[in-house]
């Protein structure tokens, strides 16, 4: 399983950058662009408020976006561009997908934009007005987790801490979900879980979302025999990156 980051660049349409929209109430040139939630602090300058919006939007995207399964499987990378209007009330409307890279990335970008909270609307002559914005989101694969990360993060499955397991010890684990914890005891949400069962050169690979084993995974684990290896790959998200955490178990009898 690969590790991905999501980068973005935010532009406010204005002046000659785009044609005049059909709805004349939506302005393409404003004095002050919309502000993201949490940036409308009266104790800071307007310049500081604008500087606040970009990292806030970036954090929101990275906390909520999910790399589509089909894109991960096909290693699809690139930039998706979503255009939308922010009304005079700060609502997001009229979403358009103006650039797509396929494999579900465009739909995922649109989903996350729809989730955004209300903006403080743009201002022109001190009056709230509707305007258009565009949000490019880059889906990009980066290197797998470093060796230090693999030592820092661990998969916890019930009370099983050793790397060799018997059939009897495996049975109660089938009813438990998996957790990923770091060195300090912090718990991370498992976004994708991959199970690999290996025996004599043959490999079975199954994937699911979340930290709960799928029915297919449970069925395959129940059929395991001594000597087979179980590899669990959990994909977690920390801030702006996704990290792969691996645990290998051997069924001994």
From TrEMBL:
Residues covered by the TonB C-terminal domain: 52-148
SUPFAM superfamilies: TolA/TonB C-terminal domain
Any matching Pfam family: TonB_C
InterPro entries found in the cross-reference section: TonB, TonB-dependent_transducer, TonB/TolA_C, TonB_C
Entry's Gene Ontology molecular function annotations: energy transducer activity
Presence of keyword Zinc: no
Endpoints of the signal sequence: 1-19
Family designation: Belongs to the TonB family.
Name the UniProt record assigns to this protein: TonB C-terminal domain-containing protein
Organism in which the protein naturally occurs: uncultured Aureispira sp
Lineage of source species: Bacteria, Pseudomonadati, Bacteroidota, Saprospiria, Saprospirales
């Amino acid at each position: 399983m690969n590790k991905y980051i999501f980068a973005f660049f935010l532009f406010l349409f204005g002046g000659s950058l785009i044609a005049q929209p059909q709805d004349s109430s939506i302005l393409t040139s404003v004095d002050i662009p919309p502000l993201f939630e949490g940036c409308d602090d009266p104790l800071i300058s307007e310049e500081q408020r604008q500087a606040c919006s970009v990292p806030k939007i970036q954090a929101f995207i990275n906390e909520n976006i999910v790399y589509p399964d089909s894109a991960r499987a096909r290693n699809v990378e690139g930039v998706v561009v979503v255009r939308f209007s922010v009304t005079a009330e700060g609502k997001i409307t009229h979403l358009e997908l103006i650039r797509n890279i396929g494999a579900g990335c465009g739909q995922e970008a649109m989903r996350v934009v729809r989730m955004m909270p209300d903006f403080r609307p743009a201002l022109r002559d001190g009056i709230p007005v509707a305007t258009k914005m565009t949000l490019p989101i880059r889906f990009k694969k980066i290197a797998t987790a470093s060796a230090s990360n693999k030592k820092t993060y661990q998969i916890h499955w019930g009370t099983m801490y050793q790397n060799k397991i018997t059939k009897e010890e495996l049975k109660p684990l089938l009813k438990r979900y998996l957790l990923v914890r770091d060195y300090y005891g912090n718990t991370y949400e498992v976004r994708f879980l991959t199970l690999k069962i290996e025996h004599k050169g043959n490999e079975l690979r199954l994937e699911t979302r979340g930290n709960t084993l799928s029915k297919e995974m449970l069925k395959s684990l129940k059929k395991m025999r001594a000597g087979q290896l179980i590899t669990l790959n959990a994909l977690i998200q920390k801030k702006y990156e996704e990290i792969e955490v691996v645990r290998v178990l051997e069924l001994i009898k």
